[in-house]
């Protein structure tokens, strides 16, 4: 037990206050309310604090300096770095060079296609009418020959249809799947030739998307999209109805503002495509390594043995019926 002497004062007997209690004591015993009350009393008495001219000038100068520094920092952050500018210029130059190369190759391809047509015409000059008709029919089916005839036109327009000008919802744009559905319904209805914005579709054509752009055989297209199909108009319109494509187009219009329409045309002219490049697969040639040891194989039943005489087959106990 500890002995506490009665004559010891209470302040001396109290344990020392922990250092962490200092902040709590300041908040409890010295609140901010008296300071606010004193300031309110001075304002009520008309004793407003007077700011000298020097302090005002210093405050204005400090504000101007801070504004200039902040503006300079913002401009510096927004300005692209020299390395970024150089890389962008290099990419732009490379894009222009690639585009020029692509245009040259396209022109060369068109020139070669014309030469092929001339050579083909010279080779078929003495062919019979049946052969020429067969070639024309096959060219129309494969998409290499231009065709004309009656058909239907399906249009899909996503340029400002039903939405505000600032809308950027991807659902309000025509997707590759929308065009694929329309084209498949037309093929199912007996279409003989189909083109999208004058891009003839063949058996090797692909309708894909890259971002918000729709690609047909890697050629970017922009709306409005015009799908032309040559064939029996009634059969193709019926196919659009039976496949649910017509209802789907109406749904695109009511929910996403994509306008569409199906019209019958008495005459359509679809361009032909260049002949596709055919790729052939070949089996790789096997080479025999002369350094590899030859494998020893045992003679099969009925073949010659090691002495060169034919060996008799194993007796199985079964009769051989001729």
From TrEMBL:
Keywords: Coiled coil, Membrane, Transmembrane, Transmembrane helix. One of its GO terms (cellular component) is plasma membrane. It comes from the Bacteria. Residues 287-322 are annotated as: Disordered. Residues 300-310 have a biased composition (Polar residues). Signal peptide: none annotated. The chain crosses the membrane at residues 57-77. Pfam families: DUF881. Residues 88-122 form a coiled coil. Belongs to the UPF0749 family. This is Uncharacterized conserved protein YlxW, UPF0749 family. It comes from Cellulosimicrobium aquatile.
């Amino acid at each position: 037990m500890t002995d506490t002497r009665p004559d010891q004062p209470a302040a001396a007997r109290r344990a020392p206050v922990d250092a962490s209690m200092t902040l709590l004591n300041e908040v409890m015993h010295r609140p901010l309310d008296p300071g606010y009350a004193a300031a309110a009393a001075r304002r009520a008495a008309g004793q407003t604090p007077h700011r000298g001219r020097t302090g005002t000038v210093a405050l204005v100068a400090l504000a101007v300096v801070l504004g200039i520094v902040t503006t300079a920092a913002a401009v510096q952050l927004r300005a692209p770095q020299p390395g970024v500018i150089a890389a962008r210029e290099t990419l732009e130059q490379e894009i222009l060079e690639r585009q020029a190369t692509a245009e040259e190759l396209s022109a060369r391809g068109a020139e070669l296609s014309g030469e092929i047509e001339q050579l083909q015409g010279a080779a078929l000059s003495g062919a019979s009418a049946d052969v020429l008709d067969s070639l024309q029919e096959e060219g129309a089916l494969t998409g290499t020959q231009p065709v004309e005839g009656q058909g239907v036109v399906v249009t899909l327009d996503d340029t400002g249809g039903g939405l505000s000008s600032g809308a950027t919802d991807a659902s309000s744009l025509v997707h590759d799947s929308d065009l694929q559905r329309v084209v498949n319904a037309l093929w199912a209805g007996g279409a003989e030739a189909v083109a999208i914005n004058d891009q003839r579709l063949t058996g090797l054509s692909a309708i894909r998307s890259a971002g918000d752009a729709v690609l047909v055989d890697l050629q970017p297209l922009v709306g409005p999209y015009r799908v032309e199909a040559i064939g029996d108009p009634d059969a193709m319109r019926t196919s659009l109805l039976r496949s649910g494509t017509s209802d789907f187009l109406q749904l695109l219009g009511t929910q996403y503002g994509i306008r569409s329409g199906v019209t019958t045309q008495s005459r359509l002219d679809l361009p032909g495509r260049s002949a596709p490049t055919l790729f052939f697969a070949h089996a790789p040639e096997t080479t025999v390594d002369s350094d590899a040891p030859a494998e020893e194989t045992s003679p099969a039943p009925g073949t010659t043995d090691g002495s060169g005489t034919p060996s008799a087959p194993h007796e199985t106990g079964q009769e051989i019926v001729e």
